[in-house]
């Protein structure tokens, strides 16, 4: 029998635990219209320049002062719009050559992320060597994880560890914080078994600390192995904190061992480590897994009684339970309750519903929810865009598909490469060549390389329509991106953004 969660004597807000890695900050919308206009201008130059010389001349001709704040914002836009990495790299080098100028840590990490996503590893080491000469303090454990995460995504564990060792000559202190960055990368990009093996092989070269164990605990799905790490933690005299216990609670909840999860919560209380919003979110998720969505919803009420207030992630976990149970009325009620409590549903919240509507082939509900989402100012993520565009494709709704595309182009959300492949399939099948050509050119103007498959499909239709000048124009536009075998950053990472069968509402990532 499941007991109630002990009273919480604190009401902490959701925190970013020591094992969570959020590599890039999100700036609030800037009220300075001049700065925003300058960012637009510089971004446009980056995406349209055909060479390093052309980019440099265009930037100089604008007379815009390239401040750190402007560079931060431009690179951020390149990252989230999947802009051309080599053009962004030229911009980064150009701005860094100015006498007395130093890039910010944010710009450095963002540039490395952009290059890593496109597997431009030679350029990554070029940037790091140059930064070491100028300001070594910018190369932090966070920087290490940005680089190692991209390497680990496409390379072996051995190669990832070798890259980790290369940082010994780049950072000022090759210490436990660096070791933790490696372990965090392996937990996220490889397997817990890999992380465990590397931990045991290197732990004598570093001094494992609380963060080390929290990183390792955060990814375990095996109850026995998580218990084993917890025991080793105690043997080394490292005292668990709330994060440590929350990891253990989460493991038990995901393993459907709710009684054990509640016993851990009792132990937390005994040690005066009070359950927080993350603890409750894990409990909510666990109750959903054992088929008790109503009891999970009750936990939201209990939290308030204990002085700990639900956040968006906690509501998302409860909503997910009802979506899995196909009780959409209850799920919608919780979303409305969120709004009444002053919380704004985020992209994950809406994505939970889009998934259900996609698999139930519910076009009407998907369109209604999309309109509600846009009206609220919450922009869809790539996964939501894929649910929508595939549903439009299935129902042959050209107008709806074009509306989604126009919103993406105007507001800058979603992956152009992924969505465009489905969109061009629909437009070509329906004989909408004019619309396909327009979308194709819009994509290129935004600095994104359409896939070669899409290009070939449109080219065949143009040949049949004797539009030889249009074909020549498209070929010239595509030439900007180099050889046909070269993949753009987004195209080279299809699986990174698209997994329509999985929706992660893990408490560390849903806010």
TrEMBL record:
PROSITE patterns referenced in this protein's UniProt entry, alphabetically: PPR
Keyword Repeat: yes
InterPro entries recorded: PPR_rpt, TPR-like_helical_dom_sf
Keyword Repeat set for record: yes
Domain of life the protein comes from: Eukaryota
Keywords, sorted A to Z: Repeat
Ranges for the PPR repeats: 241-275, 276-310, 311-345, 346-380, 416-450
Family per record: Belongs to the PPR family. P subfamily.
NCBIfam families, per the entry: PPR (TIGR00756)
Protein name: Pentatricopeptide repeat-containing protein At1g02420
Species: Durio zibethinus (Durian)
